[in-house]
Amino acid sequence: PPLNNTFCDCDNQPTTNNNNNTTTMIASTALRNAARVGSKRSMSTAAAPKQHKAKDMWATLEKTRPPPGHPHTVFEPPYSTPVVAGMVIGVITTGYGMMYFGMRHQQYKQGYWK
Asked: What is 11-27 written as a DSSP string?
């Protein structure tokens, strides 16, 4: 009988040996994986990969640095106490405000607060 696309007509299907099919699938998968492993080329011993080390580049790096007495005051004091205090308070207030208003929006949106 023709197959129906909606229902499986399993009673009229020919019986097969599922154990044999499983063994064949496992064997073919194992052979395919073995072929993949065997087909990969090993690394060449003629030219090893170059290892970049800081000690090899130290002389070149040292030439690009400023002289020893050069001031480098990017993250060094003196800092203005009112400016730092204002920035810390601003960051904490902004973070708290974002979390609070996000929670407030969700509470109204989901109907817990009216």
From this structure: GGSPP--HHHHHHHHHH
**Confidence (pTM):** 0.36
Q: What is the pLDDT of residues 84-104, one digit of tens each?
A: 999 999 999 999 999 999 999
CA 68 to centroid of chain Cα atoms:
41
Backbone Cα Rg of the chain = 36
Instruction: Kindly report, residue by residue over 16-36, the tens digit of the pLDDT.
Output: 556 667 778 888 888 888 888
Rounded (to 5) percent helix, strand, coil in the chain: 55, 0, 45
Tokens encoding 112: 């817990």
